UniProtKB/TrEMBL annotation:
Gene3D superfamilies from the UniProt entry: Glutaredoxin
Region (Disordered): 1-20
Alphabetized SUPFAM superfamilies for the sequence: Thioredoxin-like (SSF52833)
UniProt cross-references to InterPro entries, sorted A to Z: Thioredoxin-like_sf, Thioredoxin_domain
Name used for this protein in its record: Thiol-disulfide isomerase or thioredoxin
Keyword vocabulary terms for this entry: Isomerase
Domain Thioredoxin positions: 1-128
Length: 128
């Protein structure tokens, strides 16, 4: 198998039922040139299965190039801690976590149970 960064999360497959017309502002914010999305999740994780397909659809609608979306599959240890690529470097404790970077600097972060869906939350963070 290829290195961890080339693996994908099945849960990032875009939800075909996602309503693009309801999220035009969010799509515009996510489409900003130069943004890189780093997504930690697990196909075994209920929160990821519930949230990431819509986020995948939002990135797809925004036309974000595949090379700007990095998937990091995470496993859960017996003690509940998370292991996987770049988990320690980025301080990942809960999934899904999405880190948005611009020019190598973190500009927004969604962690598991924020007050809004991933695309909405990150669009608000990017606009502030």
């Amino acid at each position: 198998m290829a290195d961890a960064e080339s693996r994908t999360l099945e849960t990032m497959e875009p939800n075909p039922m996602w309503d693009e017309q309801s999220y035009e502002d969010e799509i515009e914010a996510l489409a900003e040139d130069g943004l890189v999305y780093r997504v930690w999740g697990g196909d075994w994780c209920g929160d990821c299965r519930g949230q990431l397909p819509d986020f995948g659809a939002a990135l797809d609608a925004a036309g974000v190039p595949d090379e700007n979306v990095h998937h990091y599959p995470v496993e859960k240890e017996d003690d509940g801690s998370k292991t996987g690529p770049n988990v320690e470097e980025y301080g990942i404790e809960l999934i899904p976590t999405v880190v948005v970077e611009r020019d190598g600097e973190e500009v927004a972060r969604f962690v598991e149970e924020e007050s809004a869906p991933i695309a909405v939350y990150l669009a608000d963070e990017l606009d502030s």
